[in-house]
Amino acid sequence: MINLTDSAVNALKSAISSSLHPAGGLRVMIEAGGCNGFKYKMGLAEEPKPDDTVIECNGLKVFVDYKSQEHLVGTTIDFVVAPENSGFIFHNPNATANCSCGKSFS
User: Fold this and answer.
1) Cβ atoms within 10 Å of 28's Cβ, excluding its own
2) Which tens digit of pLDDT belongs to each residue from 44-103?
3) Are strands 53-57 and 87-91 parallel, antiparallel or unpaired?
4) 10 Å Cβ neighbour count for 36?
5) What is the helix (H) or strand (E) element at residue 39, kind and residue range?
6) Are 42 and 68 in contact (CB under 8 A)?
7) pTM
8) H or E element: which one contains 81?
9) Distance of CA 88 to the CA centre of its chain
10) What's the angle, vertex CA 56, arms to CA 52 and CA 58, rounded to 5?
């Protein structure tokens, strides 16, 4: 359902190892809002919620809630280091339009 690039895996492993709170994986969600109708949300989570799907990616667990699954099928999450805008980038084949910030889609 979701793929992580090597760069994203390395960034997440670093975040997990330096987190002050226990982190069992990465939670990825879609919410209404943003510039184009939906926005991506992600953060470290201790454990999955009861309705989450748990995906193993290169030794990391990704937790995706039931409502977000249909929007995220086939998505690749990358981590890019750039002088002006470093961070996670979503390559979502289900998006028909993307915001220039890369954080929202329709």
Assistant:
1) 26
2) 999 999 999 999 988 899 999 999 999 999 999 999 988 877 899 899 898 876 665 555
3) unpaired
4) 17
5) strand 38-45
6) no
7) 0.86
8) none
9) 8
10) 150
